[in-house]
Amino acid sequence: MEDLEIIEYQTLDLSNSMLVVAFPTVGLVSSIAGHFIVDSLKLEEIGAIISRHFMPATVIHRGKPSPPVRIYAGQKACGPDGTCEQLVVVISEFMPPMEIIKPLVDHIIEWAQQKGCETIVTLEGTHAFGDKKEKDMKVYGVGSTPLMKDILKKHKVGETQEGMITGVTGVLLYEGVLRQRDVLCLLAEAHANIPDSRAAGNLLQKLDIMLPAIKIDPEPLYKEAEEIEKNIRKFMQQSKPTAPSLPPLPTQMYG
C-alpha cells in the first residue's frame, strides 16, 4: 500500500534484535504490556509507521507528540535464549482498520528482516470464557516454527491447539509460517469489556523469560500496569471528540 510508510528518525543497526509487536485487542493487554516494556527499559523512540488510514490523532507521552503507531528500541539482552542484544517494540493504542492489517504486517515483517530482527514476539489478549477469577487467568502461546514451539514447551507455556486469532497477530503468525520466520505469540486470558491490567501483568510474567533485563516483580508490576491502563483510557477518551469512533476489537477464540 503506497500510503503506508515506516519512518526512521535515525538510522540504526538493529541486527541481532528481538521485535515485540503490541497492538490493542481484548482487554488492551498488549498495549498495557507494551507500555510497561518501553517505560521499564527506557527504550528510545526511533521511528513511526504512518498511513492516512490510521486514526488522525497524536499520542502525547512524556511531553512529546507522536504518531499513533510508534517504534522504540534499545540495547537490551533479550530473546528466548538470551542471545539477542537489542530490543525493538512496535506499539499502538488503536487497532488499525481491517483493510490495512495485511499490508501493515507485510511492512513490519519486511522492515524487521531488513533491520536484522531475529525473532518477532506478538502480544495478545484472548477472551476468558465463563466466570473465571483473576487468579485463574492463564497465558497461552502459539509458535510459527518448530524452534518457537520448543521455546513454549521449554518454559511450560501451554500451546494453543485449536482456534482462531484475528487482526495483526493472526496475520503475523501465518506470515511467519509462509515466510519461515520465527514468530511467537503470547495470549493472556482477559476480561473483554475493560482494560485488564492484571491480565497484562500475567502476560509480562511469561514474557520475563524472554526479557531478563526487566526482572519482573509481580506486585509493583500490577500497580504500574494499572497506572498505564489509566493513561490508555485517557488517550481513548480524549480521542472521541475529534476522531472517528474506534472499530470493534476483533474477537478471539482459542482451544
Structural account:
It is built from 6 helices and 13 strands. The protein has about 260 residues and is an alpha/beta fold. Helices cover about 35% and strands about 30% of the residues. A 9-stranded mixed β-sheet has the order 1-3-6-7-2-8-12-9-10, with helices on both faces. A two-stranded antiparallel ribbon has the order 4-5. Strands 11-13 form a two-stranded antiparallel ribbon. It has one domain: PAC-like subunit (Rossmann fold).
Keywords:
13 strands, two-stranded antiparallel sheet, alpha/beta, 6 helices, Rossmann fold
| Integer average pLDDT | 83
Total beta strand runs: 13
CATH top-level class: Alpha Beta
Assigned CATH superfamily: PAC-like subunit
CATH architecture: 3-Layer(aba) Sandwich
Number of helices: 6
Q: What is the overall shape?
A: globular
How many strands, what sense, and barrel or not for the largest sheet?
9 strands, mixed
